[in-house]
């Protein structure tokens, strides 16, 4: 593990923003429906805008984000929170929170386990958790204890997906399983491609219809998309946000803008690689073929959807390009399964195995049944049947390294990356 970053010593004053409490799931003000309008907006959503999408027995917060927001998923996120904690030996953050850390923002807070724990550990700080979906934060607080977190409902994806800019074939070509199957290398968004092409002297963006004026991330011609919070923050945190946005360069610019000088951003997530995949000529040769099919399929589906999954979005170049300094990364390998000998490692490995098994359907279902892999859109039955086989393969793999030395004990790679907005940056 690398060392932690230097201390934030942000001198920001005591800001208080006007936030309103978000409604609780099941309250009269939150509607349930089978369809949802686009919630792309820079305003804070009103409770009457909130609708759920019921699809294949799961509940989703909107029609675009690939993961559900139902009780089943909330239970998984509760376990996953414990895994993140154990991976960091009980710490909630790799930044150093001080008395100057007055305002903390958790973007895509979900059921809010991290936000609640931060508010309890640092009572001097005002903690705000934002999410576009209504989660059962009452259960979170019943389990984790009460907190003074301010919950807000807002759709942070003010950019959406630029569907017209790239065709699906081009998107798929960007995912080369042999080169980087976990998709960890930085990816330019279509907007970034355009910017680069223009700065290299080309007047037409790549893959664009000729007479179209390219300004697709601007939804209303005069209005620049962005987040308009009432005050700046000293720490902005995002966890497990892969596949949420198509335009990560814009996300990091907004985070930078909404931090006070000296404030920190922290992003954390994890991925799981498949062993020796680059050496295999075909997926059928892979020791766990159903798992490999699901893995490859869901990666391809996410590219087709325009919001690729993978941890590419945490690459340090995004932070550096946005202006962050003191960029620092912490990696922790967490075992999947109880194969390690060390007691602590066995404990976290068991929790992560439960988490992986339980969240598998949530991770795969919408992407494979809506977008499909390079060849076809999957049926719900195909996904569920393949998952059943995939689960037995996971159990087999999680038993540990094989005797022939063909595969190591299975681990997930957890990563935290932080960066600081310079003290002399204009507020
Ligand atoms: C995998 S969950 C992670 C939740 C939480 N950060 C955690 O670590 O437990 C991703 C979260 O992003 C939220 N999300 C997805 N799209 C969003 C959007 N456009 N605006 C705000 N939140 C969004 C989802 O509702 C979900 O709560």
UniProtKB/TrEMBL annotation:
Q: Name one Pfam family in it.
A: Methyltransf_23
- Compositionally biased, Basic and acidic residues: which spans? 183-198
Tell me one GO molecular function of this protein: methyltransferase activity
Gene source species? Lentithecium fluviatile CBS 122367
Give the span(s) annotated as Disordered.
1-43, 183-210
Question: Is DNA-binding among this UniProt entry's keywords?
Answer: no
Recorded hits in Gene3D superfamilies, A to Z, give:
Vaccinia Virus protein VP39 (3.40.50.150)
- What CDD domains has UniProt attached to this entry? AdoMet_MTases (cd02440)
Sequence ranges of Low complexity compositional bias? 29-43
Domain of life, per the record? Eukaryota
Keyword annotations from UniProtKB, A to Z: Methyltransferase, Transferase
Q: Which GO terms describe its biological process?
A: methylation
The upper taxonomy is: Eukaryota, Fungi, Dikarya, Ascomycota, Pezizomycotina
Q: In its UniProt entry, what is this protein called?
A: S-adenosyl-L-methionine-dependent methyltransferase
């Amino acid at each position: 593990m690398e060392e932690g970053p230097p201390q934030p010593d942000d001198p920001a004053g005591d800001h208080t923003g006007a936030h309103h409490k978000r409604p609780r799931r099941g309250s009269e003000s939150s509607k349930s429906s089978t369809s949802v309008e686009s919630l792309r907006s820079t305003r804070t959503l009103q409770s009457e805008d909130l609708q759920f999408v019921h699809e294949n027995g799961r509940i989703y917060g909107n029609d675009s984000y690939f993961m559900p927001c139902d009780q089943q998923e909330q239970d998984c996120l509760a376990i996953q929170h414990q895994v993140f904690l154990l991976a960091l030996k009980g710490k909630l953050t790799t930044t150093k929170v001080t008395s100057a850390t007055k305002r903390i923002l958790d973007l895509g807070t979900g059921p809010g386990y991290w936000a609640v724990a931060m508010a309890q550990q640092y009572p001097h700080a005002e903690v705000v958790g934002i999410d576009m979906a209504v989660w059962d934060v009452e259960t979170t607080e019943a389990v984790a204890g009460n907190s003074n977190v301010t919950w807000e409902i807002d759709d942070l994806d003010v950019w959406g997906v630029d569907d017209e800019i790239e065709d699906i074939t081009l998107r798929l070509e960007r995912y080369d399983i042999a080169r980087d199957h976990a998709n960890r290398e930085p990816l330019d968004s279509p907007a970034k491609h355009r910017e680069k092409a223009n700065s290299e002297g080309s007047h037409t963006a790549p893959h664009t219809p000729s007479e179209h004026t390219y300004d697709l991330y601007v939804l209303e011609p005069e209005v620049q998309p962005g987040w308009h919070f009432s005050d700046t923050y000293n720490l902005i945190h995002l966890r497990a946000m892969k596949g949420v946005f198509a335009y990560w360069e814009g996300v990091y610019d907004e985070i930078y803008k909404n931090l006070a000088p000296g404030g920190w951003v922290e992003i954390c997530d994890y991925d799981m690689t498949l062993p020796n995949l680059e050496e295999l000529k075909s997926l059928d040769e892979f020791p766990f073929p159903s798992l490999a099919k699901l893995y490859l399929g869901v990666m391809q589906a996410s590219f087709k959807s325009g919001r690729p999954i993978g941890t590419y979005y945490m690459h340090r170049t995004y932070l550096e390009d946005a202006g962050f300094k003191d960029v620092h990364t912490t990696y922790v390998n967490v075992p999947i399964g109880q194969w390690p000998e060390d007691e602590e490692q066995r404990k976290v490995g068991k929790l992560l195995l439960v988490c992986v098994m339980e969240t598998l359907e949530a991770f795969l279902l919408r992407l494979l049944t809506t977008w499909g892999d390079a060849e076809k859109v999957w049926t719900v039955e195909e996904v569920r049947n393949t998952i059943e086989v995939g689960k037995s393969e996971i159990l087999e793999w999680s038993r540990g390294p094989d005797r022939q030395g063909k595969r190591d004990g299975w681990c997930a790679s957890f990563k935290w990356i932080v960066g600081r907005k310079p003290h002399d940056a204009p507020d």
